[in-house]
Write a structure and sequence with these properties.
single chain; alpha+beta; Beta-Lactamase; Heat Shock Protein 90; 5-stranded mixed sheet; 4-stranded antiparallel sheet; 11 strands
């Protein structure tokens, strides 16, 4: 039983690599915020709040001890010069110590505790906003003391600056990670693209090894594999071409000898049969050579699939086949025209051997796909036997080399497509080619 793929996971290697890097980074930032900053802020806030509340408590005690107007001057002046506290006495007012909440957090909690311990009188706090001062009002027995406390006396590093530092450092590290990870993944992406193109039969230039050691090793191994495959195919083609030449030479001599024999009514039928057998052997050798050669070294070029199909249909009609052809025009693809023409011809020849009527169509089901179908009205093939006919040398009751469908599928797959067999609306078999547009 397979587990369902987690949909939240990125599909690309770059995305997953960045996820592996960024998740621990965010967790570390959270731990730094929770453990270091909050504990550090709590300790400093408590100390700063106790100092400011103690100075306010000292001012209140001096004003209670020296209530005269003449003494207020030196008390106010000393508070400003020594503690940067701006004092003002206002007429008495009735308030029950309402603490206005401009900021809810560590600083406010620490200051409230300090004011309760060091002053012990009803008070209010207006926190305001940076860079304005914090306004503290204390209810005294005969007046209201208004104190302007510089914000720097209660706050250390502003919270938003610390948040900016955390987010900025995380963003910088993330950008660096994206830059270097993209450079590392680029080699893998090139390797995947080259492997896909090589699998489609396209000519691929050797990859330049770059990136991490493992990526470089994979690129070098791909280059070596591509060279070995191409060398093997080239040697196989050359060998079979030589074998074909060596076999066709005696066949040509035999055909020439038969042609030079004197005409004799007693041997004329035998000579005709022998000539047909030689022609069949020559055709079989050609089929084997086509199978080994495959798509050969023919370069890709833009070609109209409709023209290739139309030419194949005309050739089949000249051979006496009943072929109906319909297509969407135009269907220009990057093809090896001769190889694709051979694949279509093989499919039509297979349909001719099994049926009388052939229907050839070409459509574009989507922007990324082109479909070609070759249908006949023959007996068809059982569903469980349809893959068997693509095996080399698999022949049916109508003879043949058993390589036509094999060659056709190899050619189509070399173009990045495939061939599948289905039931035909004509009652026989439908061979369906799909190619990338």
């Amino acid at each position: 039983m397979t587990t369902p793929r987690r949909r939240w996971l990125p599909r690309s290697l770059l995305g997953r690599s960045l996820l592996i890097i960024l998740i621990p980074l965010v967790l570390v930032q959270g731990v730094v915020w929770q453990v270091f900053y909050r504990s550090h802020l709590d300790i400093l806030s408590r100390r700063l709040s106790m100092a400011v509340a103690g100075e306010i408590g000292g001012v209140v005690a001096l004003l209670d001890r020296f209530p005269g107007a003449a003494d207020r001057g030196w008390i106010f002046r000393g508070a400003w010069e020594q503690s940067e506290l701006a004092l003002r006495l206002d007429p008495p007012a009735n308030f029950a110590g309402d603490r206005r909440r401009g900021l809810v957090g560590v600083v406010e909690r620490s200051f409230n505790i300090a004011m309760t311990e060091r002053v012990g009188l009803p008070y209010t706090v207006e926190w305001g906003s940076d860079p304005g001062p914090v306004i503290v009002t204390v209810q005294m027995s005969d007046a209201v003391l208004r104190i302007e406390v510089p914000r720097k006396r209660l706050f250390t590093l502003p919270i938003y600056l610390f948040v900016v530092f955390l987010v900025g450092s995380a963003g910088l590290l993330g950008a660096v990670a994206v830059f270097f990870m993209r450079r590392q993944v680029r080699g893998i992406e090139r390797l995947a693209a080259a492997a896909e193109a090589f699998g489609r039969g396209q000519d691929v230039a050797p990859l330049r090894p770059e990136g991490a050691t493992e990526v470089r090793a994979a690129a070098i191994a791909f280059n070596a594999m591509q060279d070995r495959v191409q060398r093997f195919l080239r040697q196989r083609t050359e060998m079979l071409a030589g074998v074909s030449h060596d076999l066709r030479t005696p066949l040509t001599r035999l055909r020439l000898s038969l042609a030079l024999l004197p005409v004799d009514p007693k041997t004329e039928a035998d000579i005709t049969d022998m000539t047909a057998d030689l022609a069949e052997m020559d055709r079989m050798i050609g089929g084997y050579l086509d199978f080994v050669r495959g798509v050969g070294q023919e370069p890709r070029e833009p070609a109209d699939m409709v023209e290739i199909l139309s030419a194949a249909a005309r050739q089949a009609r000249r051979s006496g086949a009943e072929v109906e052809f319909a297509a969407d025009e135009p269907l220009v693809l990057s093809l090896r025209p001769e190889a694709m023409r051979r694949a279509i011809t093989n499919l039509i020849d297979n349909a001719r051997r099994h049926g009388r009527r052939i229907q050839l169509t070409a459509t574009r089901p989507s922007a990324e796909l082109v479909a070609v179908t070759v249908e006949d009205d023959g007996p068809g093939i059982r569903t469980d036997r349809r893959e068997d006919v693509f095996r080399p040398f698999a022949t049916g009751a109508h003879g043949g080399t058993g390589l036509g469908l094999t060659i056709a599928r190899d050619i189509v797959r070399a173009h990045g497509g495939d061939i599948s067999l289905h039931d035909s609306a004509l009652g026989g078999l439908c061979a369906r080619i799909t190619l990338p547009a």
